[in-house]
Design a protein that fits this description.
- With about 80 residues, the chain is mostly helical.
- The protein has one domain.
- About 80% of the residues lie in helices and about 0% in strands.
- It contains three helices and no strands.
- The chain is elongated and about 55 Å long.
- About 0% of the residues are buried.
Length: about 80
């Protein structure tokens, strides 16, 4: 597999990291990609679980304007405590 990096800065960072670690650039890219895909799988499982909780009614959604009002109130309360 060939990977073409369009960013010279990224290419430079990869080459520097490879030189510092004594590992090949191919190996570093492969490890990064493996970690990235593991994170995607974890995120997908978390989102599916949250969606299932919402769909089942286990979790109550809070409208955005209520969240915003709550945050603004907390900020105001903290400022007045000072």
């Amino acid at each position: 597999m060939a990977v073409h990096l369009t960013s010279p800065d990224l290419q430079s960072k990869l080459e520097q990291w490879a030189a510092q670690t004594g590992r090949s650039a191919d190996e570093l890219v492969e490890n990064v990609m493996a970690g990235y895909f593991d994170e995607l799988v974890d995120a997908r499982h978390m989102l599916d679980s949250r969606y299932d909780d919402i769909k089942s009614g286990k979790v109550k959604l809070i409208p955005g304007d209520e969240v915003e009002a709550e945050l603004r109130q907390r900020i105001a309360d903290r400022r007045s405590e000072r």
